[in-house]
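Researcher: Next entry: Helicase ATP-binding domain-containing protein (Pinguiococcus pyrenoidosus).
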Amino acid sequence: AGPLDEDESLKRISHVFIDEAHERSLDSDFLLSILLAKIRDLPNLRIVVMSATIQADQFSGYLGDAPVLEIPGRTFPVDTYFLEDLSGKVSGDSLRGAWFECQEPGNSRSSSGEFSDANLPYSVLVETILYLHAGDGSRGW
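Model: Predicted structure:
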């Protein structure tokens, strides 16, 4: 028996929502495994797993053939831009300047020398968003 077994407050919880379940992590997997272990002791508990892109049948099976509710909706086209490719297509002094800053050693390169968006200068992000939102309407929104 652990703290979760002794905590009476869990009996007052009726629903637990797990959104974006397709973006699995150690934390979400751990939460789900604990909830599944406790659900037999908590008959009023409902687990709601949500995702727009999840493999519903597979998750349903994992959850003991839980019912699946599908809500129809529209999907919107998504254009994919790779930052490295965009640098050669941009025009405008401010974005070129931001890209120049990005190419400087240590600004956007990982320790292995490869491009890393984790160290991307803020100015590159700002100028890229402005570039994608501007123009002839064929870029961005």
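Model: Note for the record: The mean pLDDT is 74.
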